[in-house]
Specification:
Blueprint (H helix, E strand, L loop, with lengths): L20 H7 L14 E6 L8 E2 L6 E2 L5 E6 L7 E3 L1 H12 L4
Antiparallel strand pairs: 1-4, 2-3, 4-5
The protein binds zinc ion.
Amino acid sequence: MSKGARKKRSTRPWQNPDAMRGLGDLLAPAGDVDDELELDGYEVKRVDGERAVKDYVCPECGNTVPAGESHVVVWPVADNDLRRHWHRHCWRLEVRRSSGADA
Ligand SMILES: [Zn+2]
């Protein structure tokens, strides 16, 4: 976890590697998540669409995470019985909320 690597927004988007993150998401190997999806105290793993063979219910929005959709599986480090499958965007919101980025 490298939290200190945040850059200021002074660089132009096309010069900023962070702006390419959306593309990087598509190319990243299975199991890796970007900093944006990391949250202290939790393990976060990406599940690729082709490995998502079951439907799950997202704890954030209550909607189905359908089989075949890339998503993340998240559990507290202290208790991996509490694994949950989240939509990526839902987990991202949760991370933002929990890390107080909007405060
Ligand atoms: Zn959701």
